[in-house]
Design goal:
This protein is an alpha/beta fold. The protein has one domain (3-299): 3-Layer(aba) Sandwich (Rossmann fold). The chain has helices spanning 3-17, 43-67, 84-91, 110-113, 119-122, 144-147, 166-183, 197-209, 219-225, 228-242, 257-273, 284-299, and strands at 71-78, 100-104, 131-135, 186-194, 249-253. The mean pLDDT is 96. Strands 2-3-1-4-5 form a five-stranded parallel β-sheet, sandwiched between helices.
Length: 302
């Protein structure tokens, strides 16, 4: 497939899963099992497309880095075992680690709790020219914290600020924060890897039954599974309230790993290719200086 065709395909796949702004999103209309079969996709085709896509992505990333103007923030949120780690590993495998950083956000430390909730992620935002990946993010503040409001008690927020519209305020503040970043050159894409409850169960059982996967199993994950419906409500409300034109959410079906990886790659390629990235051009003075440097090198005795 030539690059133009690949870019067109990536654009089409990305727009299938993009959530528009305006709050009309409904999670039950998405299918975690979707894997593009009607469009002729299968595992072999998807793997081939992914490896071609990774080459295109590497080329775009190299321009992003050289141009040094934009930064890209990719946010990944999901229920456990939806495949965040695998997506990050596979999709980013071809790109230059020099211009890419991954940060995982777990329960906040004491130092982090001594600050506002955006502080810890603000410190890890990607520099210009770089791609930053957040494996979980400040969105946990409207997910796990909404499902378990008792967490708020440890956040040291003054009691009179804990009103009933706390989560509404968080949606507003997060959108404004992202808008501020957009206006400074950070392009944000947010992914919800949507796995079904049945597939999560299957993956947990695999982790229990395969010795090499035992380390991935956590008893806490099974406990969280009991809150499945509450998490779904929290995810739906989060996406309704924080998917914007500039920083959209993508709901990526996650029951079929090869499809999840391809769809995420498609969004990243579509995003990078929309930025008109170019290597910096050399002006006449610099070209003359380069020619002089070349001449000096050539004049050295070999
Ligand atoms: P994996 O299970 O694949 O290793 P993970 O992202 O699930 O990756 P864990 O260490 O299992 O990593 O889980 C991190 C936990 O930290 C999650 O349960 C998440 O909800 C929690 N967490 C993240 N941010 C916050 C936050 N701001 N407040 C409270 N809990 C949080
Ligand atoms: Mg986990």
């Amino acid at each position: 497939m030539d690059t133009n065709e690949l870019l067109k395909g990536a654009g089409a796949l990305a727009s299938r899963h993009r959530v528009g702004a305006g709050g009309a999103f409904q999670l039950h209309r998405c299918d975690p099992k979707e894997c593009g079969q009607s469009a002729g996709l299968n595992k072999i085709v998807a793997q081939e497309l992914l490896s071609q896509g990774i080459e295109v992505m590497a080329d775009l990333q190299s321009k992003l880095y050289a141009q040094d103007h934009w930064s890209i923030l990719l946010v990944f949120q999901a229920m456990d075992a939806a495949g965040k780690d695998g997506v990050i590993k596979h999709v980013m495998s071809g790109i230059n680690p020099q211009g890419c950083e991954v940060h995982s956000f777990k329960a906040p430390s004491n130092e982090e709790l001594d600050h506002d909730y955006l502080w810890r992620s603000a410190r890890r935002l990607p520099a210009r020219g770089s791609i930053g990946i957040f494996n979980r993010s400040y969105y946990e503040e409207v997910l796990v914290v909404r499902v378990h409001p008792e967490i708020l008690a440890h956040q040291k927020i003054p009691a009179q600020l804990l009103g009933k519209d706390l989560f509404e305020q968080r949606y507003t503040d997060i959108c404004k924060h992202e808008r501020y970043l957009n206006r400074n050159g950070t392009v944000i894409r947010k992914f919800f890897l949507y796995v079904s409850k049945a597939e999560q169960r299957k993956r947990f059982l695999e982790r229990l039954d395969t010795p090499e996967k035992n380390w991935k199993f956590s008893l806490a994950d099974v406990a969280e599974r009991q809150y499945w419906d509450q998490y779904h409500e929290a995810y739906e409300a989060m996406i309704q309230n924080t998917s914007t034109e500039e920083s959209p959410w993508y709901v990526i079906p996650a029951d079929t790993k090869w499809y999840t990886r391809l769809a995420v790659a498609a969004v990243i390629i579509d995003t990078l290719s929309g930025l008109d990235l170019r290597y910096p051009t050399v002006n006449p003075e610099r070209r003359a200086a380069l020619a002089q440097a070349r001449a000096a090198l050539m004049a050295e005795p070999s």
